[in-house]
Amino acid sequence: MDKKQTHLLDISAIIGMVILVLALCFSIFVSENQHIIINTLLPLLLVALGILICIFTFTYSHKAYHFFTSMLLLSWGISDFLMVRKFIPFNFYQLWPMLGVYVGIIIFASGFYKYRKLKFGYALPGLTVFFLGCFFLLFSLKIIKVPFSVVVMVGGPLLMIFTCLFLFSFFAMQQKYKNLIIKDDEHDSFDDDELIGKI
Questions:
Q1: How far are the Cα atoms of 7, 107, 114 from residue 61, in angstroms, in the given order?
Q2: Contact (Cβ atoms closer than 8 angstroms) between residue 16 and residue 49
Q3: Three-state SS sequence of the chain
Q4: What is the rounded distance in angstroms from the CA atom of residue 167 to the CA atom of residue 163?
Q5: CB 87 within 8 A of CB 79
Q6: What's the CA gap between 76 and 99, in Å, rounded?
Q7: Which residue, 2, 79, 109, 169, is most buried by CB atoms nearer than 10 A?
Q8: What is the dihedral of CA 95, 98, 99, 104, to 10 degrees?
């Protein structure tokens, strides 16, 4: 795939992300009963761009970030359309954590798509975002009846403790397993996905 085609695909991905932000803003600030055409059109544009980028990713670019963008646009576009058209009995304020669930799954899948094997640099952030999304989803769907403010006051300190323990364990693992360390001569290259892929 030449640079011109890659540049065009990058522009399509940027346009898709802008539309995604617009769709989220409409879901937050505009009533579901207002601007029905725009609320319906935006998710359809997300799905169309997601399919287009996905086709070119599998056919030409084979870039992990193109794969990530296409899957994100597709997943949220479909969810948003189902919410706007009332095909599912939930609204944005109930399902917004699904965005985190999607992102987590797609990050995990992007690493597997790029390297055809599990990569720690993709798996760790993917699983972290996924479980955060699931955690908030339990509250937005009122599966957990406890007020979220109480959970923050009680669980916040525990989360900090477990985070510190995790970071300590991770740095200890870095000393034992050198392949978890990014070497100084490994330069950052977003185009080749080297930064994440090396770990």
A1: 11, 17, 11
A2: yes
A3: CCHHHHHHHHHHHHHHHHHHHHHHHHHHHCCCCCCHHHHHHHHHHHHHHHHHHHHHHHHHHCCHHHHHHHHHHHHHHHHHHHHHCCCCCCCHHHHCCHHHHHHHHHHHHHHHHHHCCCCHHHHHHHHHHHHHHHHHHHHHCCCCCCCHHHHHHHHHHHHHHHHHHHHHHHHHHHHHCHHHCCCCCCCCCCCCCHHHHCC
A4: 6
A5: no
A6: 7
A7: 79
A8: 170
Measured distance CA(186)–CA(184) in Å, rounded:
5
56-73 pLDDT tens trace: 999 988 899 999 999 999
- Contact status, residue 136 vs residue 152, Cβ threshold 8 Å: no
Location of structure tokens 């193109």: 66
Structure tokens at 129: 């975002």
pTM: 0.76
Mean pLDDT of the chain: 81
Nearest alpha carbon to residue 28 among 82, 86, 87, 95:
95
